[in-house]
Amino acid sequence: MSEGRVALVTGAGRGIGRITAQRLSAEGFHTALLARDREQLDETAAGCESPTMVLPADVTDADQLDSAFAEIEGQWGPVEVLVANAGAGQSSRLDRTTDADWQRMLDLNLTAPFRCLRRAVPAMRQAGWGRIVVVASTAALVGEPYIAAYTASKHGVLGLVRSAAAELARTGVTVNAVCPAYVDSPMTDQTVATIATTTGRTPEEARRILERKQPIGRLITPDEVADAIWFCIGNAAVTGQAVKVDGGL
After folding, report:
1. Are 190 and 222 in contact (CB under 8 A)?
2. Which of 59, 61, 159, 210 could be disulfide-bonded to 182 (CB atoms 3.0-4.6 Å)?
3. Closest C-alpha among 151, 40, 67 to residue 105
4. In this model, does residue 231 exceed pLDDT 90?
C-alpha cells in the first residue's frame, strides 16, 4: 500500500508531526515535511528512511500552502496521504480572550486543515484512493475551562472531518480525526509553563497535574499518537471517526 505513495505531514518539525513523518517514511512513503522552522524540519528529515521533501511554510498563509502542494505535485505527484497535524493551544479566561486570540486558534486549528483538505481531495477523489487524518484533541469532544478558543477550533475541525468523511465515503477516500489528551510534547511543555506562571507552582508540580488528569497517570507519548494515525491510514473501513488516545479519560 505504502511503497512510493506520497504523504504530506504538516507540523512535521517536532512532536507528533516528527514521529508520524518518520513512521510514514519507514513504511515506504515519499514524505513531504511542512512547518515554519527549517532547522527542525531538517532534523526530522535526518531521521527518515525514504525520500523526503522539506517545505518551510506557514500553514495559515494560503499562498504558501498552495505553493507547497504545487511543489509536491511537481516533483512527486498528488498528495495521497494527508496528516494535518499543525496546531497550537491558547489558554485564558473567556472574558480575557481577545479577538486576536480567537482568530489565531481558528486560523491554525480549523481554517488551515480545511484548506489542506480542499487542496488534496480532488486528486484523491480522481484516483479513487486517499487517506486524510487530522490531529485534533480531546478538546474536540468535551469542553474545559479556560480554553474556549482552542476548544471551539477543535470542535469545528471534528465537524469538518465528519462532514468530509460522509461526502467522500464512496470514493475510496477516508477522513478521520485522532484526538489525543495531554501528550509529552512541546505543546504540553508550553501548557506546563503557563500553569506554573499563573499558579506559582513549579513546572514539576504543573506537569503532575496534567499527568493525574489521565487515568493511566502519565502523559501520552507521540509514538502512541502516531500509532493511531497509522491505524487510520491502514484501515479502509474506518472513516468519519474521532479516535481517542486519552489514557482512558
Report:
1. no
2. 210
3. 151
4. yes
Residue 32: in which H helix or E strand, if any? Answer: strand 30-35
Domains of the chain: 6-181+221-245 (3.40.50.720), 182-219 (no CATH)
pLDDT tens-digit series, residues 202-216: 888 888 888 888 899
**Separation CA 104–CA 72 (nearest Å):** 27
Q: How far apart are the first and last CA of the chain?
A: 33
Q: Which of 183, 151, 162, 153 is nearest to 242 (CA)?
A: 162
CA 32/CA 233 separation, integer angstroms: 16
3-class secondary structure, 139: helix
Q: Helix (H) and strand (E) counts for the chain?
A: 9, 7
Query: Residue 210's pLDDT is what?
Result: 83
Catalytic residue numbers read 150
The rounded distance, in Å, linking the Cα atoms of 48 and 17 is 12
**What is the pTM assigned to this prediction?**
0.92
